[in-house]
Amino acid sequence: MKYYTKTKKDINKNWLEYSQEIKWNTEEICNNEEGYIVQEVKIISNVIPLSHYYEAWHVLNNKCEDYNDSSYDDKFCHFNEGAILDEWEKILGNNNYVIYKTNVFWIERKNNVFKYVKNWVPCIFEARDLNSIPYDEAKYMHNLVPLFSRRFEHFFSLDSDDKIINSLFEYIIDRGYEKNLKILNDIIELIPNKYNVVRIKKEVEKNIMLHEKNIV
User: Fold this and answer.
1) Tell me: the pLDDT tens digits for 121-158?
2) Does 182 lie in the same domain as 131?
3) How many CA atoms lie within 13 A of 20 on its CB side?
4) Beta bridge mates, 54
5) Is 21 helix (H, G, I), strand (E, B) or coil?
6) How far, in Å, CA of 147 to CA of 61, rounded?
7) Most buried in the list 38, 58, 198, 207, measured by CB within 10 Å?
């Protein structure tokens, strides 16, 4: 039984960037009943904040209310255009991971838990605009049996010269920074001294130059 469908291919970059988008198969989950799709999410990571919470989608007439205009219902993602150097400082020299472990429940209207879920409000950063609640504050959910579970993983390692070279080159090209290498020089300064920083910088710059020649 297929409870959800991916709306596009997963993204897993060789740095702290990832994405997975899915659409709930409400006909399979809800059987044309009113209720809430509730997802318990536990985030385990060495590079982003840990979190454990529930989030909910109200379903009526086999449609997730307020989300019908979106190409997806749920999205796990990280894409940072802000504190770039802070992130690179965290990931350089490490085996990095972000894991989403989830349990998904169907809470139909006649379920006693429905009235509790109905009172949730958006309060969890990772859940964005979805009604949500911290895991520890929803003890009435703890003994429920999930309909199914799913898992998303993002692993990337930057613990060798070659891995750092490949990741930095891909990052610079992916973000379109090849015309302004200040961000590369700033990241290079964050590389731990146990790596051959001079070689890394030369190799990345050489690869960028070759890339530029190939696309002219």
Assistant:
1) 999 999 999 999 999 999 999 999 999 999 999 999 99
2) no
3) 14
4) 40, 133
5) strand
6) 20
7) 38
CB 114 within 8 A of CB 108: yes
Number of domains in the chain: 2
* In a shared domain, residues 211 and 149: no
CB 194 within 8 A of CB 93: yes
Q: Is 16 exposed, middle or buried (0-12, 13-18, 19+ CB in 10 A)?
A: buried
Tokens of 15: 């740095």
Residue type, 135: Y
Of 103, 108, 23, nearest to 59 (Cα)? Answer: 108
Do both 83 and 138 map to the same domain? yes
C-alpha–C-alpha distance, residues 164 and 56, integer Å = 39
Domain housing 167: 161-215
Residue 208 structure tokens: 């960028």
CB 57 within 8 A of CB 90: no
Give the gyration radius of the chain's Cα atoms: 21
Question: Each residue of 160-182: pLDDT tens digit?
Answer: 999 999 999 999 999 888 887 88
Query: Which residue type is seen at 15?
Result: W
Q: Which amino acid is at 139?
A: K
